[in-house]
Each structure stands twice: as structure tokens, then as C-alpha cells.
Amino acid sequence: MRDRRRGTLVGLAIGDALGAAVEFMPPGSFAPVTEYRSGGPYGLNAGEWTDDTSMALAMADSIAKVGWNLHDQTERYVEWWKTGKYSVNGECFDIGITTRIALANYITTKDVLQSGDPSERASGNGSIMRLAPVPIHFADRYPNQIDVISRAAEESSIATHASEQCLSACRYLATVLAALINGEDREAVLAPDWKPLQQLNQIKPLHPLILEVAQGSFRHRQPPEIKGLGWVVKSLEASLWAFHDAESFSDALLKAVNLGDDADTTGSICGQLAGAYWGESQIPSDLLSGLARMDLLETALAGLLDNHKSH
Description:
Blueprint: H1 2-20, H2 51-66, H3 70-83, H4 97-109, H5 133-138, H6 146-158, H7 164-181, H8 186-189, H9 195-203, H10 208-217, H11 232-244, H12 249-257, H13 263-278, H14 285-289, H15 294-307
Helix pairs in contact: 1-12, 1-13, 2-3, 2-15, 3-4, 6-7, 7-10, 7-13, 11-12, 11-13, 12-13
């Protein structure tokens, strides 16, 4: 279980780093990604990652230091935005529009429950991309306390992404990740009749568009209908499409990032799934050794893994 917990966060960072060089590029417009490469919109070095991983590290640090506290999580996101803490190169070189507006609201009001835009049009993938610390921390609440996992997942989104699509996507993905961390079978977890999916809907109905994905839209669609976009619905669907029948960790991640467009985030979401399923021990050594700032990930993992039993 420790191996799969670690894999969930490490997988997020690897997917983020693999996709960073082709972010915003249309599918088919670039030589297929097979390993880390430099470049992309931010001119990163090979193996460097973006805001997806930075925000996950900020949340992990918050959980390790103070337990579950939404204000503290949001304060750390602000610190990342303003000072570059948790960044791969010490500066915040990219931040999503929805996230930036919400954090600016938070700075003014200090109200974490009112800072995110709840409207459907603000349904970006910025809260599922950073989600890993939630299922890592709450994995031992699965399967008997899905309500606890899903509530925390929703709360983790609300400060920046308060739309029902985003909240539902976080609730579903966190429950899937917790199940995979616990060693559940991939086919069972992704099946439309998966019992925890029914439980999630009973706790609070999932948004219809997220429910459609959870019930298997990713199985019978292919690119170009599958798109690695910034919209949370298509982003979740693309990540599950890449993961659900992949033969290995790297097979899944390369399928995800080669969709192009919001490639780093499709990679980071798929990386959470693949890492939770295969565990860190099944990640190829070149992807581990080439990942930038593993020290930051190790610090976050130490905090999460040493603290998960105490809250």
C-alpha cells in the first residue's frame, strides 16, 4: 500500500513533466513523446514539472503540517503563486486563470468557501490535477468511509474550483484512487456497476456529465472524440481512456500526453491513476531518475505517509 501511495504522487509529477513540453500543442502536431523532453511554453528542462505538481506539493505540505485545513491549503497556494515556493525552479511560471482569480478573491476575503467561481463555465481541471494528497491521506478510510473521502475531495476543490462538475470529478476520482491504492482490481473499479460509484451517488448525486464518464464513456470513444482539454469533463475522460486498458505505467502516460492540448494535466491525472494502480515499484527507472526535484516529492511523501494515521 505504501508503494501505491507513493506511486500516486510520483505518477502525478511524472505525467506532468512528460506533458509539459507539448502543452497547448494540437494532437498530431508534434513528434510523439516517448521520454522527457525540454521546451514547451515555459522553456522547461527535460523532467521539470508545472503547476499541477506544485499545487499537489502545497496541499501535501499543509496536510503534513496542520492536518485537514482548507484555509491553510489555500494560504499555501497563494504562497506558491506569490513567491514560487513548491515550484520546480523557484518561481510560479504558470497558473490557471480560474485558480488565479479564485486566489485573488481569497486574498481579499479570506473566505475559502466563497473564493472559487461556482458557475459551470469555470469548470477547469485545476482541482483534479492536484488531487493525489487526498486519496493518499484518506486511503485507509476506504471502503467503509467513502463519505469522508468524497467530502475531503470536494473540499479540496472548493477554494479554486467550486463548480458542480469540478466537485463531482474530485469526489469520483479520489474514490477511484483510494480503491486502487487499496489494491482493488482496475476492471472492477472502472466498471459502471462499481458499488462505491453507487454509494457516491447516494451521498450526493454526481454531475450528469461526470456520471457519464464514470459509467464508461471513455471505453467506447477514441480520439479525436477523446480530447485532452482543460475542461474537467474531457480531461477526466481522456485520463481514464489512457489508463483503463494500458499495459503498463508508461504505456498509460504516453497515451495521455500524446493527446496534446492540456498535455501536462492529462498526464498528471493519468499519472495519479497509473501510479496508484501499478505503484512506484513498477515505474521505469529512467522516468524516476530523470524527474526533477525528487527531493521536494520525498519531503511531501514523508509528511503524508508519516501523518496519514494521525488524522
